[in-house]
Write a sequence for this structure.
């Protein structure tokens, strides 16, 4: 029997070709890894160079709100990543009232209002602008509040010991803040603050019974907003009244436990002299039927804040 042995003359070349391709693949992987590392370094550099820490916190909050609103399963499975920011408005750059706050140095009354208006706009954006339900639908009668900011005011703004003080007294009339929001556009937008926050261009004229309230510069304030699911009853107010606003018609609802339709204003306690109270905040019925307390500035731990009946606070301290 003859056994023929066939020689494959290209076997050695194919082996070398295979090893070469392996070497090329390894080289490609190394180049890709280098590019990824370089890109990561560039991103980190830009983050530190542009100082985006605060903006990143706002975006993290907004993204968690949107994700929770779009959750197919229980919203409780997706935590809200929203933190209360601590800011101090000061003229001389110091702030003895708070520990390690975000300092907002101002030189004029208008700059104070700009800081407050920007905080209110940021708060409204972070929590979905009244378009996202980020709480579970339940049958319990609970108001879900979020403290976007805790605001302190340094005494350099109003103390008579400071020759260049901005305010003559320790109280700010909120109407001046609303006037500023009416007269000024949000940076990067073609609408003013008031239209963005309240859906109308002009500050509504209230009856002489009601004022816009004041901000006490000697005390810290909360910037608060809230939500109540449409699966529950109306927003419930403790010790206050609701002022309904439809177009230009203003109507007082006597001794209500809440409200159900349209836009409404939460009215604070009546004055000692028997007159009307003041506007604490406004409530919006969103497209989805959920009720939203728009961003409002209110005394920290005040009776008005307690009167909002915030059963749950959805922000981290």
């Amino acid at each position: 029997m003859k056994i023929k042995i066939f020689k494959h003359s290209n076997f050695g070349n194919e082996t070398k070709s295979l090893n070469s391709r392996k070497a090329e693949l390894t080289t490609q992987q190394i180049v890709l890894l280098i590019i990824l590392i370089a890109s990561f370094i560039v991103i980190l550099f830009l983050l530190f160079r542009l100082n985006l820490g605060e903006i990143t916190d706002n975006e993290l909050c907004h993204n968690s709100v949107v994700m929770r609103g779009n959750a197919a399963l229980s919203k409780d499975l997706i935590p809200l990543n929203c933190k209360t920011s601590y800011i101090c408005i000061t003229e001389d750059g110091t702030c003895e009232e708070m520990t390690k706050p975000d300092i907002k140095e101002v030189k004029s009354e208008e700059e104070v209002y700009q800081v407050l208006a920007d905080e209110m706009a940021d708060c409204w954006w972070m929590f979905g602008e009244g378009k996202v339900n980020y709480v579970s639908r339940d049958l319990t009668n609970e108001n879900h509040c979020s403290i976007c900011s805790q605001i302190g005011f340094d005494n350099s703004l109003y103390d008579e010991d400071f020759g260049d003080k901005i305010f003559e007294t320790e109280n700010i009339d909120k109407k001046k803040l609303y006037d500023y929001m009416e007269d000024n556009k949000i940076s990067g937008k073609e609408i003013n603050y008031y239209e963005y926050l309240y859906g109308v261009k002009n500050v509504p004229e209230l009856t002489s019974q009601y004022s816009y309230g004041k901000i006490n510069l000697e005390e810290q304030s909360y910037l608060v907003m809230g939500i109540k699911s449409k699966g529950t009853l109306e927003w419930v107010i403790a010790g206050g009244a609701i002022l309904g606003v439809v177009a230009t018609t203003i109507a007082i609802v006597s001794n209500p436990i809440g409200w159900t339709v349209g836009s409404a204003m939460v009215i604070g306690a009546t004055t000692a002299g028997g007159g009307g109270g003041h506007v604490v905040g406004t409530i919006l019925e969103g497209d989805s039927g959920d009720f939203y307390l728009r961003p409002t500035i209110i005394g920290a731990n005040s009776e008005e804040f307690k009167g909002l009946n915030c059963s749950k606070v959805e922000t981290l301290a």
